[in-house]
Amino acid sequence: MAGWLSGLDEVPDPVFAQRMLGDGVAIDPTGDCLHAPCGGEVTVLQPSGHAVTIRTAQGAEILMHIGLDTVALKGEGFSPCVAVGDHVAAGAPLIRFDLDAIACAAPSTITPVLLLETPGFALVRSRADGPVQVGDAIFALEPQAGTAAETIKASGETVERTIIVPLAHGIHARPAARIRDLLGEHAADVTITKQQRSANARSPVGLLTLAIGYGDEIQILATGPDAAATAAALAALIESGMGEKGHGPAPVAAPAAPVVQAPATLPADGILTGVTAAPGLAVGQARRFRLPEIQVDTTSKGAAEEQARLDAACASLTARLDAEIGHAAGPQRAIIEAHRAMLGDADLRAGAAKAIQDGASASIAWRAAIAPQVEALAASGDARLAERADDLRDLERRVLLALSGAEEAPLTFPPNTILIADDLLPSQVTAIDPRQVIGLCVERGGPTSHAAILAANIGLPMLVSLGPVLRQIAENTPLILDAGLARLQVAPAEAALEEARREVAERAARRAVALAAAARPCHMADGTRIEVFANLGSQADARIAIANGAEGSGLLRTEFLFLDRETAPSVDEQAADYQAIADTLAGCPLIVRLLDVGGDKPAPYLPIPAEENPALGLRGIRVGFAHPQLLEDQIRAILRVQPIGQCRIMIPMIAGVDELRRVREILDRVRAELGITEKVELGVMVETPAAAVTADLLAAEADFLSIGTNDLTQYALAMDRGNASVASAIDGLHPAVLRLIADTCKGAASRGRWTGVCGGLASDPLAVPILIGLGVTELSATAAIVPEIKALVSELKLDAVRAHAQAALACATAADVRALAREFTA
């Protein structure tokens, strides 16, 4: 194909860059057709049309793989010109492809051309990197004597396993390479059979010829001294999904002639919809951010020297992270501390050291150590865990920079920049100057990623999951970014721009007035008392909350103490941190949520097996019951905070009264042991529909109820809030969610208990009047928005919001509720 020729080291995929399938070259294409590089027989044509293998008359196998991760395109953009069994001449068209469509939908168009591991041949480069045209020679094959493939002398038992393949795209090049690597650690002959055809499992070529797809039944046959362990290990690897696990019924086979779709284009009205990661409104110009490539050494200068280079780079970065921690606060500090902990991970360092001993350079070894960790996060099946892979990629990049001796160039942009990017790493968000960049829009990413958290922390509106259509936006195009409405308006009319600019100015003015009045207790216009608290994750957050007029904390996320560390914090350590936060709040109420891990928030010292659906598995208080000492230690630490009673305890993920009673028993026992006679309030988080509809039963024994609207929404609507494909449809103002909130408030009031909201709706100005109208008397919002929430509440009257709430309950859709809310006046 026409394009730019390079070595495999330039391919951003370890399967190819580390030559797991074989040696070769890569071409970044500029044309639209792949031609046969030599004469031979077409032995493999992937059903999705993205890859083809030719066997020469001498037996060499040549694989051509158009783009990276293009198997996921399911044939869109590819039109094969040949079929398996065809004999072709050099230069014959093999696959025609839509380069623009692939560039928009795949991570990369770079195309590896490989000599698959074939006994008796070696590859010799015949030209340097640079531009190539169809027909140019790119490498030569040399016969090699004495290179017959080694075989294992089969003796011992024979073990057979039958499994269903769960990989969404079947066993293609990358899974085949991983299978071969796994079998390198075992002494057994292994064949894989699909229907009546079999292949040596150590041969990626052979596995590709089987065309194993999602949902196919295959047989694993292992013979040899290690047969049982080999069959079990291989079955476990395949059944894990290798980061590509599919769900639902097996897909229908792609049509013989795939439909080529045009690349994504901007809609006629210029309005793009994404997922809100950080709310806000901005008016500016588009500027694209492209991550500069890092030049890395690929040749080892000896294991001792490469190890010394890696150690020095890690030490340098550790010192830099320590300095950054010293100047950071709140979420930014927690994220930097997490990166520092990752950098010191013993397994990560050991993996890099092994690769160095095996002959890799320090840079290649570090990449090799990071890659499986990233893949493991992706393989978790949880979108929020997959977002943590960005932290590892960030760490990889910063170590590679240190190894190269380069400094990350400062991020400078003209004023009023709305940054457009494929994705953003946490360190890049922290490097942004908010005086220059006023908003962020990314193709991929997730609403709970660390980049999103950092954007919200510095007040930058951010939309994620906008898709490849962003690439169609030209530099300096005027934009209106309304992250609160999850939309980006491209090239709007001048009248729309002026209206948006006026709104930005009015919001700033309202913010200044609200901040000036924020220190006063919050009352409605008719005198009704509504408490406005703040959600916290650290002492730094508490300082920000008090500065913004928060009257206490309705939610202290204690996970900040438990995550990104190898062992659980001690009672003394917990008590000291809780006390510091309580002191910062200066006697104001502090509602401490018991540890809420599991699902999207794993802790390395809490063994939680892989779950098909983590959101419905071992998480919240269920983890506490599974680890009773951990639960008791946390309660003991909370009870040591002075003065007694400032801290209230809240139980996460309650589904029934029996769980409340179990925690109450522990609380009462520990209080007695510590000689505490004062009352310590124990409340529950209403995050499940079960808790909402039995609120009256819970309120009979709980001291208060607080609604976590984020989880309540995802469980009520059966939509994972971490899944970008459905996240845009998740709205806490859905009538079903509002009715559950109404049931909760009614049930609590029947027992004389108050109801608060500590989820995202408490920070949504459109939702606040409805929540109060339904019976909510305490709102715990993000610290930065507390002044606006208090100002809003001060304008409301109870009769008006009650009528407004009843009208909202009668709406048919979330969109109807939001339309009603926008028209409401106090």
What's the count of strands?
33
User: Roughly how many Å apart are the termini?
Assistant: 66 Å
Shape annotation? globular
Biggest pleated-sheet summary: 8 strands, antiparallel
Backbone structural class = alpha/beta
C-alpha-based Rg, rounded: 29 Å
Total helical segments: 29
- Taking strands numbered 1, 2, ... along the chain, how are they ordered across the largest sheet? 8-4-5-6-10-2-1-12
Average of per-residue pLDDT values: 84
Helix content, binned percent: 25-40%
- The portion of residues forming beta strands comes to 15-25%
Unreliable runs: 146-154, 250-263
Quick overview:
The chain contains 29 helices and 33 strands. It is α/β, with parallel strands linked by helices.
Can you give a write-up of this model?
The protein has 29 helices and 33 strands. With 826 residues, it is α/β, with parallel strands linked by helices. α19 (628-639) crosses α20. The longest helix has 25 residues, at 303-327. The protein is globular. The model is unreliable at 146-154 and 250-263 (pLDDT under 50).
Produce the secondary structure layout:
Layout: E1 3-7, H1 14-17, E2 22-29, E3 33-35, E4 40-45, E5 51-55, E6 61-65, E7 78-80, E8 87-88, E9 93-97, H2 99-105, E10 111-116, E11 121-125, E12 130-132, E13 139-143, E14 158-164, H3 173-183, E15 189-194, E16 197-200, H4 204-209, E17 217-223, H5 227-239, E18 271-273, E19 275-278, E20 281-289, H6 303-327, H7 330-343, H8 346-357, H9 362-378, H10 383-387, H11 389-404, E21 417-421, H12 426-430, E22 437-442, H13 450-457, E23 462-464, E24 478-482, E25 487-490, H14 494-517, E26 531-536, H15 539-547, E27 553-557, H16 559-562, H17 571-584, E28 590-593, H18 621-626, H19 628-639, E29 647-651, H20 657-674, E30 682-686, H21 689-693, H22 695-699, E31 705-707, H23 709-717, H24 724-727, H25 735-750, E32 755-757, H26 768-774, E33 778-781, H27 786-793, H28 798-809, H29 814-823
Parallel strand pairs: 20-21, 21-22, 22-23, 26-27, 26-33, 27-28, 28-29, 29-30, 30-31, 31-32, 32-33
Antiparallel strand pairs: 1-2, 1-12, 2-10, 3-9, 4-5, 4-8, 5-6, 6-10, 7-9, 11-13, 14-17, 15-16, 15-17, 18-25, 19-23, 20-24, 24-25
Helix pairs in contact: 3-5, 6-7, 6-11, 7-13, 8-9, 9-11, 14-27, 15-17, 17-19, 19-20, 26-28, 28-29
